[in-house]
């Protein structure tokens, strides 16, 4: 076993090389049809564009789309792609044709249609613009200045001089490629001297290579205060007034890039890449991918780096500053622990310090001053000493002379160590925690469980982590350990932040805050997740490593209870963190990797989402018009939206939508990137679409309003006209029905009235004979009594009365004056029959109108007076009195006739008909009242009879009629 470990250590010592960016090969995710990729850019919207041997491709999350060329061009390789300042995507093919991308189709530019480059078989390898947005195009044989409308391409000629022809124009270096230069390269000696005109007058040596023309190019850029020129294998740094600095790259330069952080990238032929972060450190670049040809390099908006190659497709680095500091030639070394020293970061392999990573990005190497111990549990430094904790001892090395002192662990295995100040430290063994002051043992604290982690609290308390929870003391010198209440589990990290918060990381439980003896769970672990390490970064950030990778959390977000999902850094498994010199060093399965403490610009909420296309049925609609409210016919077809998510992070982003409309809101997740809506009801709609990434980031919300017009039968005009016609028809029908009903009711009422009138006439006809019979009986009585003169006088009056009755019976109503005159004639006839038997008086209220303007049914009062005379007067011992009183009742709208007599009780019974006989006139009068109410549709006709018993007997009959009867018999 020791022999195998020695081999591993020797292997690390011999195979460790300089830092490189940690990259992964992304070709399986892109589904590009080739691994020969020449160029990659990210446009302003966030799309990635790849120029490949099989054409131009645009990448959006999860898929690549090929840009179609016109059919007559076939499928030539695309050598370069460029985005202009105003957002146009230009690209050039191997055949020298230049195109602009419109949607997903390529359109050849006017100057290219003239065949400039194709005629001379020129290879277009680059576009650039100066500060005035003047576009230049570089080929293997020439340099062209392109007009703003793309119609003209003016070739820039170079004067015949010795040197590298470069034009200094408006602050930019423009290479002037010519046939002369190409021929000169092929015939020139290996070493020569060239002059850079217009820049400086110094001369430099440039090594020339007779390599294929595809890899020959002059590239220029502006980097910090320098102009950078690459030519073949050379990198030239030019600053006016200073000597030109030349660096040999060791291989031909294919690409030159300045990233968003002002770092310089060089891509080399079959030698990978070089990265320079500062001109002062130009001699020690970061290297990587040294076995392949890096054809282009692009840093994206999320801080990632994309490398294209001529042999192995596309490589990706998720954070542009993620460095892999040490690795074997074949597989990464699984370092598990890193420690901070004043020289750099030491990394341990199987508990042995194996690599020292200097802070100045120098080549990692075997630590020289670090004691090579096995099974290193903990390491710390003070200004005077280095402390090495292993399983059995604490070795203290004096930094001045390297002398060491060993403090044995008293036959017990050490499990943890902690430094307090420069000469005070603690060790943990199975039975106790031991405190050393000035390297001398001063106190022990008994323990009940095995301690694996030690940490001080803000107020000098002690925290001890075990496999079953956390123990604590109020001060590290206290001799009694108390167990913290709360969740239990295997403690993998205890750490204190600059905000004086003490955190506990339990492997299968999550992140806890230790506070006053309690463990408060603030970041619970998922059921399938295991935590490995944690540390404080910068600006209140917490770096937490789990089986799912490393995420950065905001400490205040966790303390405030926000549901923070953290910002993802890497999916590698990290076992320990060491913050030092502005970077976070991590021991991981890929070796030792590091990132700045602020690794990337977090852009939560800025996932680029765009409307790519939208259609109405088979009709494609203008994307530019999507900002305005669109109006569609009800039968125009299904609406389809296609969206692009220009996210290049590995976490997947999903689209969601809400459709607000005239019915219940529709919402949900969009399946893929296409949303189809059909059978929409007429009305106004508002569509909201946004993306959410797995790391919790969310895009801005895209909103689009549109309206579905109702069909013509649902339009307001149609509805209004239909409603008006319907109302008119209903009114007409209702009027016709009501008219028919009224006519029918009128006919029915007329018939009923006729029947009632007939019945009334019949009743009146019954009364007339009754009166006539009584009168004839009276005449007969006079004759039998031989009173011829009285009989003659009676007969004369009788005939006069009969004529009046017959005349009045033709009309339904007669005036009150006629009725009273008829009554007086009748009463006089009865007084002839019964002389001196009774008196008759009439009293009319003065408030009533003239009697000629009051109308009532004929023969209405006569039967009542007749009953009073015939049934109340004959046997009355007292002088008879019959009185008629006429009054008005304005509240009821009636005229009342009250007939009072003082007839005897015996005759009252005869009047009411209660024991035997009921007068016929009384019965007829009751029936007439009922009939009159029916005819005139009223209840104002009434008849009441009141009998009075006692000393003063008599009968009162009250008849009421409406006060608005007219001469035509109407009410």
From the structure above, extract its key features:
971 residues; alpha+beta; Methylamine Dehydrogenase, Chain H; Immunoglobulin-like; Heat Shock Protein 90; five-stranded mixed β-sheet; 12 helices; 72 strands; 19% helix
| Rounded Rg | 60 Å
Shape call: elongated
Which CATH C-level class of the domain at 17-321 is it?
Answer: Mainly Beta
Number of strands: 72
Structural class: alpha+beta
Percent of residues in helices:
10-25%
Secondary structure tally, helices: 12
Task: Provide a quick synopsis of the model.
This protein is α+β, with helices and mostly antiparallel strands and 971 residues long. 19% of the residues lie in helices and 40% in strands. Among the domains are: 17-321, Methylamine Dehydrogenase, Chain H (7 Propeller), CATH 2.130.10.10; 609-713, Immunoglobulin-like (Sandwich), CATH 2.60.40.10; 743-962, Histidine kinase-like ATPase, C-terminal domain (Heat Shock Protein 90, 2-Layer Sandwich), CATH 3.30.565.
């Amino acid at each position: 076993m020791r022999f195998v470990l020695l081999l591993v250590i020797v292997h690390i010592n011999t195979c460790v090389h300089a830092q490189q960016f940690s990259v992964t090969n992304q070709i399986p995710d892109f589904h590009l049809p080739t691994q020969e990729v020449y160029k990659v850019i990210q446009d302003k919207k966030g799309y990635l564009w790849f120029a490949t041997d099989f054409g131009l491709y645009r990448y959006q999350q999860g898929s690549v789309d090929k840009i179609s060329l016109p059919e007559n061009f076939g499928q030539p390789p695309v050598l370069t792609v460029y985005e202009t300042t105003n957002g146009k995507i230009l690209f050039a093919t191997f055949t020298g044709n230049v195109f602009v991308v419109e949607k997903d189709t390529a359109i050849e530019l006017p100057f290219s249609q003239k065949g400039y480059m194709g005629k001379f078989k020129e290879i277009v390898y680059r576009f650039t613009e100066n500060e005035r947005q003047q576009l230049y195009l570089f080929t293997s044989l020439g340099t062209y200045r392109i007009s703003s409308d793309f119609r003209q391409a003016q070739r820039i000629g170079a004067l015949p001089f010795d040197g590298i022809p470069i034009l200094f124009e408006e602050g930019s270096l423009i290479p002037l490629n010519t046939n002369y230069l190409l021929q000169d390269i092929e015939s020139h000696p290996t070493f020569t001297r060239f002059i850079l005109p217009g820049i400086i007058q110094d001369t430099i040596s440039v090594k020339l290579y007779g390599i294929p023309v595809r890899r020959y190019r002059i590239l220029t850029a502006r980097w910090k205060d320098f102009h950078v020129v690459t030519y073949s294998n050379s990198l030239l740094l030019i600053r006016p007034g200073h000597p030109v600095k030349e660096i040999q790259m060791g291989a031909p330069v294919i690409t030159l890039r300045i990233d968003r952080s002002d770092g310089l990238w060089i891509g080399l032929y079959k030698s990978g890449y070089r990265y320079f972060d500062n001109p002062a450190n130009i001699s020690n670049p970061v290297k990587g991918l040294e076995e392949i040809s890096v054809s282009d390099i692009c840093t994206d908006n999320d801080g990632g780096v994309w490398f294209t190659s001529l042999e192995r497709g596309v490589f990706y680095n998720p954070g542009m500053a993620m460095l892999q500091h040490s690795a074997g030639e074949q597989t990464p070394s699984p370092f598990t622990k890193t420690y901070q020293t004043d020289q750099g970061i030491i990394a341990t392999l199987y508990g042995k310090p194996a690599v020292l990573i200097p802070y100045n990005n120098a080549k990692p190497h075997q630590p020289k001053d670090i004691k090579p111990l096995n099974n290193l549990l903990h390491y710390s430094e003070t200004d005077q000493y280095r402390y090495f904790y292993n399983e059995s001892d604490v070795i203290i090395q004096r930094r001045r002379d390297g002398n060491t002192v060993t403090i044995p662990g008293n036959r017990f295995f050490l499990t943890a160590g902690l430094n307090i100040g420069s000469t005070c430290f603690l060790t943990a063994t199975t039975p106790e925690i031991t405190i050393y002051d000035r390297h001398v043992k001063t106190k022990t604290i008994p323990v009940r469980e095995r301690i694996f982690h030690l940490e001080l609290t803000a107020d000098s308390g002690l925290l001890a982590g075990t496999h079953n929870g956390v123990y604590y003391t109020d001060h590290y010198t206290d001799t009694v350990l108390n167990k913290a209440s709360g969740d239990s589990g295997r403690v993998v990290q205890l750490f204190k932040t600059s905000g004086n918060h003490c955190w506990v990381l339990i492997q299968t439980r999550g992140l806890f805050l230790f506070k006053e003896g309690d463990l408060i769970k603030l970041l619970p672990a998922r059921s399938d997740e295991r935590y490995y390490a944690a540390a404080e970064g910068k600006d209140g950030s917490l770096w937490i490593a789990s089986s799912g990778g490393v995420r950065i959390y905001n400490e205040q977000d966790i303390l405030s209870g926000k549901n923070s999902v953290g910002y993802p850094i890497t999916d590698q498994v990290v076992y320990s963190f060491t913050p030092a010199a502005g970077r976070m060093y991590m021991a991981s399965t890929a070796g030792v990797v590091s990132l700045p403490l602020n690794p990337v610009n977090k852009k939560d909420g800025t996932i680029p989402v765009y409307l790519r296309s939208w259609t109405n049925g088979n009709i494609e609609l203008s994307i530019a018009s999507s900002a305005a409210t669109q109006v569609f016919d009800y039968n125009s077809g299904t609406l389809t939206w296609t969206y692009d998510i220009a996210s290049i992070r590995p976490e997947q982003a999903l689209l969601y939508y809400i459709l607000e409309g005239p019915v219940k809101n529709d919402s949900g997740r969009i399946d893929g990137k296409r949303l189809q809506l059909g059978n929409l009801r007429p009305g106004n709609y508002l569509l909201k679409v946004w993306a959410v990434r797995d790391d919790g980031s969310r895009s801005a919300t895209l909103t689009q309003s549109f309206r579905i017009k109702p069909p013509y039968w649902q339009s307001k005009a149609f509805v209004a006209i239909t409603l008006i016609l319907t109302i008119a028809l209903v009114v007409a029908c209702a009027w016709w029905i009501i008219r028919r009903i009224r006519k029918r009711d009128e006919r029915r009422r007329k018939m009923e009235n006729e029947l009632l009138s007939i019945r009334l006439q019949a009743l009146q006809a019954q009364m007339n004979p009754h009166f006539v019979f009584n009168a004839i009986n009276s005449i007969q009585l006079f004759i039998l009594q031989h009173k011829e003169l009285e009989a003659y006088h009676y007969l004369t009056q009788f005939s006069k009365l009969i004529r009046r009755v017959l005349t009045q019976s033709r009309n339904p109503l007669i005036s009150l004056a006629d009725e009273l005159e008829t009554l007086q004639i009748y009463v006089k006839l009865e007084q002839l029959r019964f002389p001196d038997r009774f008196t008759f008086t009439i009293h009319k209220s003065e408030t009533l109108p003239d009697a000629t303007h009051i109308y009532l049914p004929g023969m209405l009062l006569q039967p009542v007076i007749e009953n009073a005379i015939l049934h109340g007067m004959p046997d009355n011992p007292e002088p008879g009195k019959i009185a008629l009183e006429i009054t008005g009742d304005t509240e009821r709208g009636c005229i009342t006739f009250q007939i009072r007599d003082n007839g005897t009780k015996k005759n009252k019974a005869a009047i009411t008909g209660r024991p035997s006989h009921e007068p016929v006139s009384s019965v007829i009068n009751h029936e007439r009242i009922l009939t009159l109410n029916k005819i005139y549709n009223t209840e104002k006709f009434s008849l009441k009879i009141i009998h009075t018993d006692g000393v003063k007997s008599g009968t009162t009959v009250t008849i009421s009629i409406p006060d608005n009867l007219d001469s035509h018999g109407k009410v």
